[in-house]
Amino acid sequence: MPHAAHPYWGPPPPEAPVEQTTRLRPVRDRHPARVGVAVACLVLGLGLIGGAVAGAWLAGDSGPDPAARTAYTEARTLWHSVPVDTLFPRTLKGDGAGPGRADRVWTRVAVAPDGPCAGALDPLLLKALRPVGCARVLRATYTDATSTSVTTVGMVFTEADATAMTALRARFGDESLDERADLMPRTLPAPGTVAAGFGDKQRASWRVSVLTEAPVIVYAVSGFADGRTVPDPQPAAEAMAEGQTTASAQAGLGHEAKGIADRVERGLRTTLAKATSTQEPR
Q1: Where are the domains of the chain?
Q2: CA 71 → CA 155, 158, 164, distances in Å?
Q3: Residue 57: pLDDT above 50?
Q4: What value does the mean pLDDT of the chain take?
Q5: Closest to 144 in 3D by CA, of 99, 182, 106, 89
Q6: Is the pLDDT of residue 222 over 60?
Q7: Calpha distance 47→150 (Å, rounded)
Q8: For residue 203, what are the CA distances in angstroms to 69, 134, 144, 171, 172?
Q9: Which of 26, 66, 137, 193 is deepest in the core (most CB within 10 A)?
Q10: Where does the chain have alpha helices with state H?
C-alpha cells in the first residue's frame, strides 16, 4: 500500500529527459583472469554467508535461550531496578507472627541506599560469605506498633550461581553458622527515630536465611528501642522456643527478627516470580 505524502514533501522532481543523460562509454573486453578472480570471490563470499547462517541456526536450536529469565539473572539487577518500597514496604503486616500467634504490624523508620558489603557486614560474617562473593547490601530498619522494639532487615546480593548458594546453605546448616553470635548481622541505626541508639551492643536476636533459588541472603537483627545493652543475644529460633526466660525471649524479639525477615523474603520471592514469568524478552 503506498504511503501518504509527508506534509512537508513537495511534488516529486520530473525525470530527466533521455537526451540529457551522458553518453555511455564503450565496454572493454573482460580479461579471462579477472573474470576467474571475480567468480572465485563470489563463491567464497556465498560460502561464508551460508556457513554463518547455518551456524547461527544450529546454535540457536541447540544452545540455551539467551533471553531466558531466571531468578539468578534477574537478581543481578534487582537491587537497583526495583523501587525500595517494593523490597522494603513502608508497612509490614505480621498476622500471627508474634508470641502466642499474636498479630504484628511493623513500620519502616529508615532505609539505607545500596552499599558495599564491607561497611554493612561484620568482617567475620563477610569472611563466611566469601565463597559466594558479596556484591551489594540493602538495609532497612523497622519498629513495632508500640515503638518498643527495632529490627534491621537486610538483603545481601551475591555473585554466586545455584551450586555455590546451595553449598553455602548446607554449610550454614551443618556448622550452625546462623546461630553463632560472632556472625550476627549489624544494625542500621537511624538518628532522630526510635532506632537512634540501635547499635552492635543493642542486638538481641537475629536470623540469617541463605536462599538457593536466588543469589540472595536475607537477614534480620532485633533489639529494644530504648537502647539497652543486651549481654546474651539469642538466635531467633532459640529465643522463640518454649520455656525461654531471657529478656529478649520474653519481649518476643526472636519473633520480631523472624517475622520481618520472613515477610521481606516472601516479597523478594514474589518480585522475582513476576520478573521471570510471562514477560517479553528484553
Answers
A1: 71-275
A2: 15, 12, 15
A3: no
A4: 81
A5: 106
A6: yes
A7: 70
A8: 38, 23, 16, 24, 20
A9: 137
A10: 32-62, 71-81, 84-87, 117-120, 123-128, 162-174, 236-239, 247-250, 253-275
State how far Cα 162 lies from the chain centre. 14
Which cell numbers hold the place of 144? Answer: 513495632
Q: How many residues does the chain have?
A: 282
DSSP 73: H
pLDDT digits (tens, 9 = 90+) for 88-100: 999 999 999 988 8
**Beta partners for residue 136, in sequence order:** 157
**What band does 34 get if pLDDT is binned at 50, 70 and 90?**
low
Other Cβ atoms closer than 10 A to 179: 17
Residue 251 is inside which H or E element, if any? none
Q: Which grid cell sits at 226?
A: 530504648
State CA 177 to chain mean position distance: 23
Our CA angle for 36, 42, 44, nearest 5°, is 100
Angle subtended by helix axes 253-275 and 71-81, to nearest 10? 110
- Burial letters for 233-244: b for 16+ Cβ neighbours within 10 Å, e otherwise? bbbbeebbeeee
Q: Report the Cα 241 to chain-centroid distance in Å.
A: 33
What share of the chain in percent tops pLDDT 90?
65
The grid coordinates listed for 262 are 520472613
pLDDT at 68: 55
Helical H segments across 101-209, by residue range: 117-120, 123-128, 162-174
∠ CA 120-126-131, nearest 5°, is 140
d(CA 219, CA 154): 5
Separation between Cα atoms, residue 262 and residue 268, nearest integer Å: 10
Residue whose C-alpha cell reads 499474636 in the numeric block: 102
- Tell me how far apart the alpha carbons of residues 34 and 38 are, in angstroms, rounded to a whole number: 6
Q: Assess contact for 208 and 132: CB atoms under 8 A.
A: no
Region label for 63, one of left (φ > 0), alpha (ψ between -120 and 50) or beta (otherwise): beta
Cell of 265: 523474603
